Amino acid sequence: MLGMGSGQPNRLESLRIALRKAGKEVEGAALASDAFFPFAYNDAVEEACQNRISIIVQPGGSIRDEDAIDCCNKYGVSLIFTG
Length: 83
Known about the structure:
Layout: H1 11-22, E1 30-32, H2 44-50, E2 55-58, H3 65-75, E3 78-81
Parallel strand pairs: 1-2, 2-3
């Protein structure tokens, strides 16, 4: 594990904590979430993509899952739904 942003009620802050802890090793790393992302653009999914995460794993289940798919496709990031 390179970084973890657990216990934060804010998705972006949780991601940013994990990114800081991972440092330069974040490029090409995987991001896993135990909850779906209710928003993709201008939120954690896009910020993860912009920080060169290579794959995002999440349970899915949001009415905006298609936005997460589109956002990841835009940045060439793989997206896996576990649910």
